[in-house]
Amino acid sequence: MATVVAGLAFGLLGCASLISRHPVGNRAVPEPAKPVALQAYLGRWYEIARYEQSFQKGCAGVTADYSLSDDGSINVLNRCRKPDGTIDDARGRAKIVDPSGAKLKVSFFGPFYGDYWVLDHADNYSWSIVGEPSGRYLWLLAREPTPPEANVNKLIARARDMGYDTSLLLRTVQP
Question: What's the CATH number where 121 sits?
Answer without folding.
Answer: 2.40.128.20
